[in-house]
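Hey,
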Amino acid sequence: MKLPKLRTFRHFIWGNLLSICKFLTRIIEAEYLLQQEFDFYKGGQKSTMKETGLTKRETQIMNVLWKSDQPLSAFDILTASPDLSRNTIQIVLKKLQTIGFIEVAGFGYHKNALTRTFRPIISQTEYMGESLARSTSLEITKSFIKSLDDCQTLNDLDTLIQEKRKELGC
């Protein structure tokens, strides 16, 4: 019986170790994603936007989507943010879809592969408004009103306030 050369055997072992490491990395990423989804589901209900603060990567991907006029694929996002890995983008897109920030807008092609395209459901303005604390929003509004020197904008704001008062019955 002929034994394999030591060099070939080493390559075989290292190749298998690399495959095992890649497999374990995928399991860890999937476990992280499942934990994130579990954290966002409470009693079988999705969390509201007020309960959901975006992470750095989620914000980075949402900014790319908000800046675009058309739905983007994961490859388009990778092109716009080359510092993100393809796997990270896929995981974050799935999470953003789960928590209701984005939706599948359709399908497109990248090379010969069919890809999903995504668009934001929540505008950047809505997100920023919901993420600010109520007291902070009041302070920003006061500061904005004090800095105004345009009567038309003040009239528009007054109209909005009157409509809201009627809606609330004040």
